């Protein structure tokens, strides 16, 4: 739905998009693209300084928020609503990974991984859904991962959180349909961002050392020709235009998901064992 917002000198019909994880990678690329497409963009991240909405460009606003903290999420969206009275699109994009086997991952990191890749997105969704229902329109876009459909070695908790998010997104799509609210799932594979560098990793000094080394070689191969965050941004823009449910960002990922879904487990395991030298 197009709504009127008072922007700068005049009144323009612009959609307001809030995006988490806008300080780097995919989020930053989406921010740039949507500004070019005449949206009003509110970027949310921990590295933005101001805890109140700060205008950083004619149609660009930034706000500091750690989305794993419910009080910060409440304040953040209150600040957004008091400025715009509505949000047309929420893009749940923030995320981070931990590479560790189930035995090696600490209980604290289990919580952290579920907090940022799953629970935090629910906090943001819950912050906008009532308003979207009142508007009788809205779009919730979840940047999940191909890891929401299948599982790769050494990142079981990351993939588990993404599976959980996908499951909730599917349920939400049914719950919110009567109010004309769309829910979409974006499922990228290997993308060239700071994600890998920021990933917390087990020291590898455990009985799983050989497993980590082999899996890392597989990931290195997978990330040899990554896609760009700009490509993912275009896919997200397509989702905003077409309001579809599921968007992969590469044909290779589609094939991987199909293999996972349709091959007998021992055949699929053989592919994983071969690809990751396990
Ligand atoms: N890169 C890939 O290969 C790939 C593949 C599949 C899916 N994805 C998904 O794509 C999404 C974006 O990742 P990216 O690749 O663009 O990685 P990135 O460059 O590391 O960006 C991650 C973003 O999340 C934000 N963030 C992390 N923790 C946060 C928190 N507690 N509160 C608020 N913001 C937080 C970071 O900002 P601050 O640190 O400033 O808070 C940053 O802006 C993630 O959901 C990721 O799982 C990535």
CATH topology annotation: Rossmann fold
**Whole-number average pLDDT?**
95
- Give the second-level CATH assignment, the architecture: 3-Layer(aba) Sandwich
- Subunit organisation of the chains: single chain
- What is the beta-strand fraction? 15-25%
Q: What top-tier CATH class fits best? A: Alpha Beta
Strand order of the largest sheet: 5-6-4-3-7-9-10-12
Domain count: the total is 1
State the separation between the terminal residues, measured CA to CA. 50 Å
Q: How many individual helices?
A: 9
User: What would you call the shape?
Assistant: globular
| Total beta strands | 12
Give the proportion of residues in helices: 40-55%
CATH superfamily: NAD(P)-binding Rossmann-like Domain
- What ligand species are in this complex? NADP nicotinamide-adenine-dinucleotide phosphate
Helix and strand string, N-terminal first? EEEHEEEHEEHEHEHEHHEHH
Taking all Cα atoms into account, the compactness measure Rg is 19 Å
Largest sheet properties: 8 strands, mixed
- The low-pLDDT segments are 1-11
Class computed from helices, strands and strand pairing? alpha/beta
């Amino acid at each position: 739905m197009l709504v009127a917002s008072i922007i700068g000198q005049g009144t323009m019909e612009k959609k307001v998009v809030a995006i988490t994880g806008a300080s780097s990678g995919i989020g930053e690329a989406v921010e740039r693209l949507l500004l070019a497409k005449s949206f009003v963009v509110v970027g949310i991240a921990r590295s933005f300084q101001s805890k109140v909405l700060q205008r950083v460009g004619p149609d660009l606003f930034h706000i500091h928020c750690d989305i794993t903290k419910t009080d910060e999420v409440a304040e953040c969206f209150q600040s957004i609503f008091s400025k715009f009275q509505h949000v047309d699109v929420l893009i749940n994009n923030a995320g981070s990974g931990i590479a560790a086997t189930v035995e090696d991952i600490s209980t604290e990191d289990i919580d952290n991984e579920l907090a940022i890749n799953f629970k935090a997105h629910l906090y943001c969704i819950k912050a906008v859904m009532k308003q979207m229902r009142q508007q009788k329109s809205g779009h919730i876009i979840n940047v999940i991962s191909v890891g929401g459909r299948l599982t790769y070695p050494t990142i079981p908790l990351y993939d588990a959180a993404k599976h959980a998010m996908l499951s909730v997104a599917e349920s939400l799509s049914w719950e919110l349909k009567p109010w004309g609210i769309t829910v979409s799932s974006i499922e990228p594979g290997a993308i060239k961002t700071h994600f890998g560098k920021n990933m917390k990793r087990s020291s590898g000094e455990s009985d799983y050392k050989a497993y980590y080394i082999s899996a890392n070689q597989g990931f290195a191969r997978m990330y040899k020709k990554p896609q760009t965050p700009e490509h993912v941004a275009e896919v997200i823009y397509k989702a905003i235009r077409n309001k579809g449910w599921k968007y992969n960002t590469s044909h290779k990922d589609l094939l991987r998901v199909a293999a996972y879904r349709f091959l007998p487990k021992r055949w699929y395991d053989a592919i994983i064992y071969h690809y990751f030298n396990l």
